[in-house]
C-alpha cells in the first residue's frame, strides 16, 4: 500500500535549500519522483512501512504536509510571472512576499492572488480570488462559493494588508454557516456581505468597478529564454508529469552554487528557474543532457490543464495531443481543460467534461477567454473517439470567427482611409539568420502578442539565433489596392 504526500508551496515558490531538504526526506522514504499540482503543490508517494519515519523527519524540519488528504487548499499566485511574463504592473516581488507573510493560518479555501496584466495564472480558479486593480496596492475581490459556480464581486477594492485578514473572516463565515454558503445551489450574496462586513474591524474604501479581462494568450513557458536583465530563465515541463528526484536535487545544488535563491512552480505543472547568468547557461544545459530532458515541446501540448494525480485525464490528453499533431491543428490562444470529476475548478477556453464512463461533453467560454466565467455547451454525449474531430471543428469555428472579427475591424479602418490607394507593410529581418518579425503575428517564442510594434519591444532577441534587436533591419513593401 502506498500513501500520497502533499506539500503546499505557498504562492508557487520555494528556496532551493528547502526543496533539497524535502527531496532528501522523500528519497529516504523510497520515493523516486515528485509531481507538481495545478495549485503549486508538491506530491510524492511512499510505502506504508516508510510513513512513520517520514513523519518524524517532516516534524524535525517543521514542514507542513498532508497524507492522502487535501484539507488545506493552497494560495496560488502570479509571482512566477514577475519580470518574465509581466513587467508593467505595480505588483512586484516585495508586495507578494508581504502579503504571504500576513497569512498566519492554513487556508481551507482555495485562494488566488493574481496580476490582472498577465494571463499565465488563471484568475478565477480559487474560491477567494484577489485580482490586482489599476490602483497600487488595491485588489478586486471575487468569491466563488465552494462547490458551486456562483461568483460574487465584493463591492469595494481590498487593500493589500487586508487580504489575509479578509480571507480568514470569509472562510470562517462560509464554514461556520455551511447551510447558507457551502455546496448550495443559490447563495444569498447580500446576507454573505453583511455577515463578513460585520466582522471586519475597519471600513473598506475605493468602490470596485467591474474587472476588464485582458485578451488571453498563454506565454511559451518552456526552454531557455532571455529576459530584461540579460539573464536567462529556464522552464521545464514533463510530459508524464514526473520529475526525477535525482534531477531536482541537481537543480537545487546548481541553484545554490550559482546563487539562485528560488525555484518556481506553475499552474501548468512545470517549474521555472529565473536568474541564470549567461556564463552558467552551459551548466544548466549539461543537467538537461544528463537526464535526457527535452525542452521546446509543441505549444499544443503545453496549453492543457488536467486534475492532479489523474491518470485518466493524462491518458486522454496524450491521445488528443497526438491526434492534434496528426491533423496539424492550430491551437494558439486557446487552452484546454479535462474534467473527470465535478466542480474541480479547472479553467480553460475549451473544456472536455466527463459525463459518464467513456462519455464526454465539450464546452467553451463565450469568448474563448479561459478567465471568462460564462460557459457555452458545444457538444454532449461524445465517446472518446469522437472528441478529436469535434474539437477540431470547434477550433476551426474559433479561428473563422476571429478572422471575421479582424476583417470587420479592418474594414472599419479602411472606411476611414478610403482615399488612400495603397497600404504600406513592413517587417523586420535578422541579418544573421534572416528570421522575420511580423507585428501582425507577434513572436510566440518570445511571448510577444500579435500587434506589438517592433519599435516598442525592449531587449528583443532573435528567437532563432539570439541576435540582438539592433541586428534587425526594416523591410517595407507596398500592397496596391
**What integer value in Å does the Rg equal?**
24 Å
Q: How many E strands?
A: 24
* Number of domain modules: 4
Q: Largest beta sheet, briefly?
A: 6 strands, mixed
- First and last CA, distance: 72 Å
Primary descriptors:
481 residues; 4 domains; 11 helices; 6-stranded mixed β-sheet; globular; 28% helix; Sulfite Reductase Hemoprotein, domain 2; alpha+beta
Task: Describe this protein's structure.
This protein has 481 residues and is an alpha+beta fold. The protein has four domains: 2-72 and 219-290, Alpha-Beta Complex (Sulfite Reductase Hemoprotein, domain 2), CATH 3.90.480; 86-197; 303-400, no CATH class; 422-480, Rubrerythrin, domain 2, CATH 2.20.28.10. The chain is 28% helix and 25% strand. The strands form five sheets. Strands 6, 7, 8, 9, 10 and 11 form a six-stranded mixed β-sheet that branches. A five-stranded antiparallel β-sheet has the order 5-1-4-3-14. The protein has a five-stranded antiparallel β-sheet with strand order 2-15-16-13-12. It is globular. The N and C termini lie far apart (72 Å). Residues 415-422 have low confidence and may be disordered.
Secondary structure blueprint with pairings:
Blueprint: E1 2-8, E2 13-15, H1 16-28, E3 33-36, E4 41-47, H2 51-60, E5 66-67, E6 75-77, H3 93-102, E7 111-114, E8 128-132, E9 138-144, E10 151-153, E11 158-159, H4 163-176, H5 178-181, H6 189-197, E12 223-226, E13 232-236, E14 243-244, H7 245-257, E15 262-265, E16 271-276, H8 281-290, H9 299-302, E17 304-306, H10 311-326, E18 336-339, E19 350-356, E20 359-365, E21 375-383, H11 384-416, E22 422-430, E23 436-437, E24 472-480
Parallel strand pairs: 6-7, 7-8, 17-18, 18-19
Antiparallel strand pairs: 1-4, 1-5, 2-15, 3-4, 3-14, 8-9, 9-10, 9-11, 12-13, 13-16, 15-16, 19-20, 20-21, 22-23, 22-24
Amino acid at each position: 500500500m502506498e500513501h500520497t504526500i502533499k506539500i503546499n508551496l505557498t504562492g508557487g515558490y520555494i528556496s532551493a535549500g528547502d526543496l533539497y531538504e524535502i527531496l532528501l526526506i522523500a528519497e529516504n522514504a523510497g520515493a523516486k519522483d515528485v509531481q507538481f499540482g495545478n495549485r503549486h503543490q508538491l506530491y510524492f508517494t511512499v510505502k506504508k512501512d516508510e510513513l512513520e519515519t517520514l513523519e518524524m523527519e517532516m516534524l524535525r524540519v517543521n514542514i507542513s504536509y498532508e497524507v492522502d488528504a487535501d484539507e488545506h487548499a493552497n494560495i496560488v499566485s502570479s509571482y512566477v510571472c514577475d519580470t518574465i511574463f509581466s513587467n508593467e504592473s505595480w505588483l512586484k516581488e516585495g508586495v507578494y512576499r508581504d502579503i504571504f507573510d500576513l497569512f498566519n493560518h492554513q487556508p481551507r479555501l482555495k485562494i488566488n492572488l493574481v496580476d490582472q496584466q498577465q494571463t499565465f495564472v488563471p484568475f478565477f480558479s480559487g474560491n477567494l480570488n484577489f485580482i490586482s486593480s489599476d490602483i497600487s496596492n488595491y485588489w478586486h475581490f471575487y468569491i466563488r462559493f465552494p462547490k458551486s459556480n456562483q461568483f460574487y464581486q465584493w463591492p469595494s477594492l481590498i487593500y493589500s494588508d487586508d487580504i489575509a485578514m479578509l480571507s480568514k473572516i470569509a472562510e470562517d463565515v462560509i464554514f461556520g454557516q455551511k447551510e447558507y454558503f457551502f455546496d448550495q445551489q443559490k447563495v444569498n450574496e447580500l446576507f454573505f456581505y453583511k455577515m463578513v462586513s460585520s466582522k471586519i474591524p475597519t471600513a473598506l474604501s475605493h468602490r470596485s468597478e467591474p474587472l476588464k479581462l485582458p485578451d488571453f494568450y498563454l506565454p511559451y513557458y518552456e526552454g531557455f529564454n532571455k529576459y530584461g536583465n540579460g539573464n536567462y530563465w529556464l522552464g521545464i515541463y514533463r510530459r508524464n508529469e514526473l520529475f526525477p528526484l535525482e534531477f531536482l536535487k541537481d537543480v537545487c545544488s546548481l541553484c545554490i552554487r550559482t546563487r539562485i535563491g528560488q525555484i518556481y512552480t506553475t499552474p501548468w505543472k512545470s517549474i521555472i528557474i529565473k536568474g541564470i547568468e549567461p556564463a552558467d547557461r552551459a551548466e544548466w544545459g549539461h543537467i538537461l543532457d544528463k537526464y535526457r530532458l527535452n525542452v521546446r515541446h509543441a505549444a499544443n501540448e503545453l496549453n492543457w490543464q488536467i486534475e492532479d494525480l489523474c491518470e485518466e485525464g493524462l491518458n486522454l490528453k496524450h491521445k488528443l495531443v497526438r491526434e492534434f499533431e496528426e491533423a496539424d491543428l492550430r491551437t494558439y490562444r486557446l487552452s484546454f481543460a479535462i474534467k473527470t470529476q465535478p466542480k474541480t475548478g479547472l479553467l480553460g477556453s475549451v473544456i472536455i467534461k466527463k459525463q459518464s464512463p467513456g462519455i464526454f461533453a465539450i464546452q467553451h467560454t463565450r469568448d474563448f477567454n479561459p478567465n471568462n466565467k460564462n460557459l457555452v455547451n458545444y457538444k454532449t454525449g461524445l465517446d472518446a473517439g469522437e472528441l478529436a474531430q469535434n474539437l477540431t471543428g470547434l477550433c476551426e469555428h474559433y479561428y473563422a470567427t476571429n478572422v471575421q472579427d479582424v476583417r470587420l475591424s479592418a474594414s472599419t479602418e479602411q472606411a476611414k482611409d478610403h482615399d488612400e490607394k495603397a497600404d504600406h507593410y513592413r517587417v523586420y529581418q535578422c541579418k544573421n539568420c534572416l528570421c522575420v518579425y511580423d507585428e501582425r503575428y507577434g513572436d510566440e517564442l518570445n511571448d510577444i502578442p500579435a500587434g506589438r510594434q517592433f519599435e516598442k519591444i525592449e531587449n528583443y532577441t532573435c528567437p532563432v539565433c539570439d541576435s540582438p534587436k539592433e541586428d534587425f533591419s526594416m523591410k517595407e513593401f507596398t500592397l496596391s489596392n
